[in-house]
Amino acid sequence: xxxxxxxEALVVRANNPIASSPQRSRxxxxxxxxxxxxxxxYCSELQRQILIGALQEERKTYDQLAVECGYSAKYVKxxxxxxxxxxxxxxxxxxxxxxxxxxxxxxxxEQVERGDVRSSSGLETMVQWRNIADGVDGSDxxxxxxxxxxxxxxxxxxxxxxxVDDQPQNLRLLSELLEEQGYEIQQAISGNIALxxxxxxxxxLILLDxxxxxxxxxxxxxxxxxxxxxxxxxxxxVSALDEAWDKVKGFTVGGSDYISxxxxxxxxxxxxxNQLKIKQLQTTLKHRIYQLQQAIQELQRLAAIDKLTRVAxxxxxxxxxxxxxxxxxxxxxxxxxxxxxLNHFDIYRQDADPTEGDGKSLRxxxxxxxxxxxxxxxxxxxPQSLTxxxxxxxxxxxxxxxxxxxxxxxxAQNDTVKNSTASTxxxxxxxxxxxQRKGSDIAQRLLHQIQMAKxxxxxxxxxxxxxxxxxxxxxxxxxDFLAEGDRALQQAKQQTGNCIVSLDL
Length: 505
Fold this sequence. Notes:
Blueprint: H1 2-14, H2 22-39, H3 45-55, H4 62-69, H5 73-92, H6 101-114, H7 150-156, E1 160-164, H8 168-179, E2 184-188, H9 191-200, E3 205-208, H10 217-226, E4 235-239, H11 244-252, E5 257-260, H12 265-303, H13 314-331, E6 335-342, E7 352-354, E8 361-363, H14 364-379, E9 386-389, E10 394-400, H15 411-422, H16 433-452, E11 463-470, H17 478-493, E12 499-504
Parallel strand pairs: 1-2, 1-3, 3-4, 4-5, 11-12
Antiparallel strand pairs: 6-10, 6-11, 7-8, 9-10
């Protein structure tokens, strides 16, 4: 019934007297464009027919328009028409009714064409659109402007809705209803076609019938919810099945809402809008959660870096040392730890030196610390090593042994290491001699680079290095490893000048 009447409305519209009047066509086009440009809202098809009816020489009643367009007279009188007159009143800055709309639009268009627009009239913005009144004929009345910008289309797009029903008349009725509200509509006449349509382009919402010949609505919804790419699309069941069990099953398979047939227009619109708002809020929430996760990761990254020296922080050192200790124990590999401490640092606590660019200043001692940190990182380049600021004047270096490492220089040396390790006390987890020597070699090279380094200060850098190497076992303790490294550093500090002390665990 609705469809046939809507179809009749199309015929009536094609033979409408307004189409034969160029002036009326210009006025209609002018009004539609004003509404769109000023409010970013398109007139619905029903509102357009009301406007056409009001612009005719013989105005049609709301009852006549309701019959022609397939809607109830109450819906036209109380909802659609008042909204149209409100929009026109807003853009024209004067009260517009069905009785005066023709005169008001004629006057407004005349003002724009003459350029006689006063700011007090509220029509000053129309000057921007004077060209829309030029070259409009009756053939334009049944089509939207094909040259509308993509940005405008996006700004008024309310969402894409997929309608799934095996009854064409139901699809047409719902399509007309929702398109009038600014929604983009897709249609599917079966469950299989619906699944194919969703795979090609995901809608924002699905209105799904239950009783269909190939795949019923319940199965379609289940398949959508089982797919990670489509499970977040809200589904509203629209069905003549009105038993409580039917509704419960709909929610069980993943439906977001349920509308019983025959439905009321206001109910459909309200439930559709509600589900789209929920989906928008969920999307916004997911985005904010993602932003929060990124912020947390960034905070963790910043916490892992020492602000002054830009090497790893103490927190990062503790976490990485535990990880390396466990890996070394699991794979029976060695682990070397070095502590480097600056001596006689008071000589650097003098005048502040300006830094480049940021307008701040750093004391000479801070610049020395930065320089030393960079020098250590550039010197110790073994795989997966970590340089960190362990204390105010102390740096720590973790050097894990890698699989197939080149700590042994030759096959002969490998044999020697095997023979030497055979006598190693497994209870203490003592490191092989060659591995200790490798750690000492790294420390010697580092000490040499520090002594030869050109610093921002004229004073040389004085350092002591303590190192410890171990092969962790189940009986070994990380606390003992750290304590032994600290003991090596303290012994080095007791020596005269720059010194290295190497111990094993």
